[in-house]
Design goal:
12 strands, 3-stranded mixed sheet, Rossmann fold, Ubiquitin-like (UB roll), 6 helices
Length: 268
Amino acid sequence: MSPPARKKSSIPRSLWPAIAQRTRSIVLVGLVCVACGIGGVVLVHYAQQHSYFSATDIVVSTDGRLTADEIKQWAGVALGLNTVALDVQAVERRLRQHPWVRTAVVAREFPQRVYLTIRERQPVARIRRPEAAYLDGNGDSFVAPASAAPDLPFVSGLERVPLETQTARTAIAGVRLCLLLIQEWNVALSEIHWDDQRGYTLFLSDRPIVIRLGQQLRPSVFMLMQRVLERWSPDRRAIVFDARFTDQIVASPLGLHKEKRRGRNSHA
């Protein structure tokens, strides 16, 4: 039996030298890439150990109460760290775990400088609870070590309501709306009390006035209440303003309401 006929190549013989040259070029490029990769790994490892990249300056920028030393300690960075070996993402995660930190950005300036840029939570009210808790300007509640921030109004009524529940989030959203709507009143606020049945009640600190707002927080009512306060002399008697109506404010003597508030504050 005769052997099968060999199939002729479809590539002309004159093209084989060019194909061989192209193949050698590709292999050479591949070898160069591998060498560069290995060299790069070796170079990075060398840089991670070299004193030339030891940090001599850590620049901290913050807009709040945390000191530069507190921030560096929480971040786990110190002079002498290797800027090449520094895990920027890990340091940012650690900083964001601080209860007073809202955002954190870490950057390196080779060879020897590190930047920590912090934006802190700005509290607008303190939530009355067994643990120290606050409400920030974005409407978020958070638990944090007690702050020395002065003149923060209190939010009461949530002492036994977990802050992560929908009930607390809804109540706090109303508190934030109250704080926004009374900015034009030009008064000093002492406390916002929330009750799941009666709604919101405001206590002023610069005059003996209690304002019942109820469950519905209507901007029109706040505007009406502003006009009433502008005409109400600060040295007049203690009063309760009932603003739960659509187009009127009902005033009555403070009476026993003042004693109730004293009792609540005395247990703070």
